[in-house]
C-alpha cells in the first residue's frame, strides 16, 4: 500500500507539471495588448521611438537592407508607430506604396494622422490580424517584420499569408532578437528557428546581417 501511494503521488506530480507546461505553451506570445491598454498612442509611439531601442537607432540601416526602388510596394507587419514605414514611403517615392499593419486600432489612427501631417500620400496604415497579413495575394515587392515575429501567436499562419502576399522574387526581411529567459518569461526567437519556419513556405534565405546590435536581420527571397 505504501508503494502504491508513492506511485500515485509521483503520477500526481507529473500530471500537475504537464498541465503547467500546457498552460505555458497556450499562453499568448503577443504581450503588447496589455501595454496598449493603459497607454495613449502618443505614449506608445514615444516608447517605440526611444533612442534606447536598437531597432530605432539603426532604422536607416534596416531600411538599407531592403534594396528599395521607386515604385515598389512594401508592407510592414506590426509597424508600431510607423517610424520605419514612413522612411520607406520616402524611398519608394510617390509612385510606390507602403502599407503598415498594427493590431491596436489607436496606433493605426495615429500612423495615418502622422502620415497626413507629413504629407506621405503613398502611406496607409490598416488594422492587423493575428493569423493573416490582410494583404492582397501577390501584391508586395517587400515585406518587413521588425521585433514582431517572436510575438506572433500563430507564426505559421502568418508566414503562409506573407508568402501569398509576396510577388515572385519578392523580399522578406525579419529582424528580431535571440531567445532569452525561460518558460513563460522567455522572449525572442533564435535565428535558426526563424530560418527553418520560413523555409516551409517557399522562401529561401539569401543573407543575414548583424548590423543592428543585439539583433539579427535575415533576408529571404520568394522562389
Structure description:
By secondary structure, the chain is of the alpha/beta class. It has one domain: Rossmann fold, CATH 3.40.50.150. Helix content is 41%, strand content 22%. The chain is built from nine helices and seven strands; from the N terminus they run H-H-H-H-H-E-H-E-H-E-E-H-E-H-E-E. Strands 3-2-1-4-5-7-6 form a seven-stranded mixed sheet, sandwiched between helices. Helix 6 (83-91) links the parallel strand 1 and strand 2.
Helix content: 40-55%
C-alpha end-to-end distance:
64 Å
Shape: globular
* Low-pLDDT windows of residues: 1-28
| Series of secondary-structure elements, N-terminal to C-terminal | HHHHHEHEHEEHEHEE
Structural class: alpha/beta
Please identify, by name, the CATH architecture: 3-Layer(aba) Sandwich
CATH superfamily: Vaccinia Virus protein VP39
CATH topology (level 3) name: Rossmann fold
Q: What is the residue-mean pLDDT, rounded to a whole number?
A: 88
Query: Within the largest sheet, what's the order of strands?
Result: 3-2-1-4-5-7-6
- Largest sheet report: 7 strands, mixed
Number of helices: 9
**CATH class bucket:** Alpha Beta
Computed CA radius of gyration, to the nearest angstrom: 20 Å
Q: What percent of residues are in strands?
A: 15-25%
Amino acid at each position: 500500500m505504501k508503494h502504491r501511494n508513492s506511485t500515485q503521488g509521483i503520477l500526481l506530480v507529473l500530471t500537475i507539471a504537464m498541465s503547467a507546461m500546457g498552460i505555458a505553451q497556450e499562453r499568448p506570445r503577443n504581450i503588447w495588448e496589455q501595454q496598449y491598454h493603459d497607454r495613449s498612442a502618443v505614449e506608445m509611439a514615444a516608447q517605440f521611438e526611444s533612442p534606447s531601442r536598437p531597432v530605432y537607432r539603426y532604422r536607416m540601416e534596416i531600411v538599407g537592407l531592403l534594396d528599395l526602388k521607386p515604385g515598389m510596394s512594401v508592407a510592414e507587419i506590426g509597424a508600431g508607430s510607423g517610424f520605419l514605414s514612413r522612411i520607406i514611403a520616402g524611398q519608394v517615392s510617390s509612385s510606390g506604396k507602403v502599407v503598415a499593419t498594427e493590431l491596436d486600432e489607436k496606433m493605426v489612427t495615429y500612423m495615418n494622422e502622422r502620415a497626413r501631417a507629413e504629407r506621405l500620400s503613398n502611406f496607409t496604415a490598416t488594422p492587423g490580424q493575428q493569423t493573416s497579413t490582410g494583404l492582397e495575394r501577390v501584391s508586395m515587392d517587400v515585406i518587413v517584420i521588425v521585433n514582431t515575429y517572436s510575438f506572433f501567436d500563430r507564426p505559421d499562419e502568418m508566414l503562409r499569408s506573407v508568402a501569398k502576399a509576396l510577388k515572385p522574387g519578392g523580399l522578406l526581411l525579419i529582424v528580431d532578437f535571440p531567445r532569452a529567459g525561460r518558460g513563460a518569461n522567455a522572449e525572442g526567437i533564435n535565428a535558426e528557428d526563424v530560418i527553418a519556419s520560413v523555409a516551409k513556405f517557399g522562401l529561401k534565405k539569401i543573407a543575414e546581417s548583424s548590423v543592428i546590435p543585439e539583433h539579427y536581420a535575415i533576408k529571404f527571397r520568394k522562389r
